[in-house]
């Protein structure tokens, strides 16, 4: 179970999310849908542990692995 409690994310003191809470249970299937700039990628980065929220709690079981594939990939030879 993934638990998000009172999540707040700000960029340059401008809130993207404020007081967001939700739970994703073991067999849940979810989709993040929204317009450009709504924070979908930011939310995924937080769930993957690649970005920290301004405040709030993110609880992910240690045995759970979350993968994240960025929108823009840098390929090297």
The gist of it:
This protein is mainly beta. It has one helix and three strands, in the order ββαβ.
Question: Could you give the topology of this structure?
Answer:
Blueprint: E1 2-11, E2 14-24, H1 40-47, E3 55-59
Antiparallel strand pairs: 1-2, 1-3
State the distance separating the first and last CA atoms: 39 Å
Instruction: List unreliable stretches of 5+ residues.
Output: none
Structural class: mainly beta
Average pLDDT figure: 92
In spatial order, strands of the major sheet run 2-1-3
Q: What global shape is seen? A: globular
Helix content: 10-25%
- Count of domains: 1
Largest sheet: 3 strands, antiparallel
- Beta-strand content: 25-35%
Structure description:
The chain has 77 residues and is mainly beta. It has one domain. It is 10% helix and 34% strand. The protein is built from one helix and three strands; from the N terminus they run ββαβ. The protein has one helix at residues 40-47, and strands spanning 2-11, 14-24, 55-59. The protein has a three-stranded antiparallel beta sheet, with no helix packed on it. A hairpin with a 2-residue loop joins strand 1 (2-11) and strand 2 (14-24). The mean pLDDT is 92. It comes from termite gut metagenome. It is an enzyme of class 3 (hydrolase). This is Putative ABC transporter ATP-binding protein. One of its GO terms (molecular function) is ATP hydrolysis activity. Keywords: ATP-binding, Hydrolase, Nucleotide-binding.
């Amino acid at each position: 179970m993934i638990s998000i409690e009172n999540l707040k994310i700000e960029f340059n003191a401008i809130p993207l999310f404020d007081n967001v809470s939700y739970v994703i249970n073991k067999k849940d299937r979810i989709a993040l849908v929204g317009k450009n700039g709504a924070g979908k990628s930011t939310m995924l980065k937080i769930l993957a542990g690649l970005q920290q929220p301004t405040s709030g709690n993110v609880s992910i079981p240690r045995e759970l692995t979350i993968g994240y594939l960025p929108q823009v990939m840098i390929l090297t030879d």
